[in-house]
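Repro:
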Amino acid sequence: MSIEVRGIVKRFGEFEALKNIDLTVPTGELVALLGPSGSGKTTLLRVIAGLETADAGSVLFHGEDTSNKSLRDRRVGFVFQHYALFRHMTVFENVAFGLKVRPRSKRPSKEEIQERVMSLLKLVQLDNLAYRYPSQLSGGQRQRVALSRALAVEPSVLLLDEPFGALDARVRKDLRRWLRRLHDEIKVTSVFVTHDQEEALEVADRVVVMNEGHIEQVGTSEEVYRRPATPFVYHFLGDVNLFHARIHDGQPVLSGSNGADKKHPQAKVFVRPHSLDVHTRSNGQEHFRAMIEHINPAGPLVKLELVTSHGEHIDVTITQERYRELDLQKNHLVFVTAKEMAVFVEDYVI
């Protein structure tokens, strides 16, 4: 079941939460809506679900306009951040709820409900906990129950609002891998909201980066991370160093300063810490000088914190081998070069 969003506008009083949003989610794809708080990602998810009514635009499921259809009629499975399980019901009863409340003509038999619920609980590895109550489960287990309940009604699309936001980091990491494997198995078109960049990049087929009510970029994890379309995307996704460079003969000149003049316009240059290198002497490449302020050698990579003569702080990541080769020490002067960068002049990419 494909999802198509056309020209969606949503206002709350004077505040425009969504500004003419267009988005297509192909059948069977797992898409992440990623952005900071207030970017409009949850509002967009709720408009797709039918929980919010758009002021303009339309949402189509498989080419059919759903504007006048309720959440139930749209056959949407919705998973909330805080599970929203019925505390007085067992795991089995929670998952079976959506099936039992169907109109009698559409309600499966008791045997069919039993089979479907237990099959789902087995899929999410909770069949041995079917008759426990939510209070007897961990956070990760409760979230899997919520997901099973959403899948029980055989939704045409699955929507998840910050599904792992209430969990600790280790459980969150385990569950997002589990969600990826589950999606590969069931293939239901899915959209999930997150503010966690790592989560979106690891789980989703495609990532939709949102900011202030509009879409900045849509692409695969590699595309949005390695080829950001705007300064916002580059700055939002992962660690990055921001330089204010001068453009000279069409090329950025990194000086480690904010300097610019009328002949040499200023540009924003974004460089990931792993795309910078340090040298103990000049090697003829374009470079600037900096002092090592702190070294963190723990882990497979060594993290360097540098400071330029203009007082700017820079993060550099190098391998352990490179660290040992250079014999770096705190307060050493180093020459910094860039292996890869993105340059934006007046919001255009060079």
